[in-house]
Amino acid sequence: IDEDGSGALSFDELQMGAKKVSEFGQWLRVMDIDKGDLRQLFEIVDGDGSGEVDPQEFADAMFRMKNTEAKTATKFVKH
């Protein structure tokens, strides 16, 4: 997903990863997160507001979402 090898993800890289990485796309579908929700997901995951998601921010957010009931996590993203 990290196209430029910076160690962090930009929103464009997240979008591209959702299209290119089937496991990531499937995870998004399971969480009921569509293309329109990706910006909100990115902003939630980008905890420090830097415009990039570093590995720790990403891991922390995915852990929280994995350990939250799917419908609750989706409502959090969509609202």
Describe this entry's structure for a reader.
With 79 residues, the protein is mainly alpha-helical. Helix content is 61%, strand content 0%. It contains 5 helices and no strands. The protein has helices at residues 11-20, 22-30, 38-45, 55-66, 70-78. Helix 1 (11-20) packs across helix 2. The protein is globular and about 25 Å long. The model has no long low-confidence stretch (mean pLDDT 81).
Topology (elements, then pairings):
Elements: H1 11-20, H2 22-30, H3 38-45, H4 55-66, H5 70-78
Helix pairs in contact: 1-2
Could you describe the largest sheet, including whether it forms a barrel? Answer: none
The total beta strand count reads 0
**Helical stretch count?**
5
Give the strand content.
Answer: under 5%
SS-derived structural category: mainly alpha
Shape, per Cα inertia axes:
globular
Mean pLDDT metric: 81
Percent of residues in helices? 55-70%
Which stretches of 5+ consecutive residues score pLDDT under 50? Answer: none
Q: Note the run of SSEs as H and E.
A: HHHHH
Taking all Cα atoms into account, the compactness measure Rg is 12 Å
* End-to-end gap: 26 Å
- Oligomeric nature of the chains: single chain
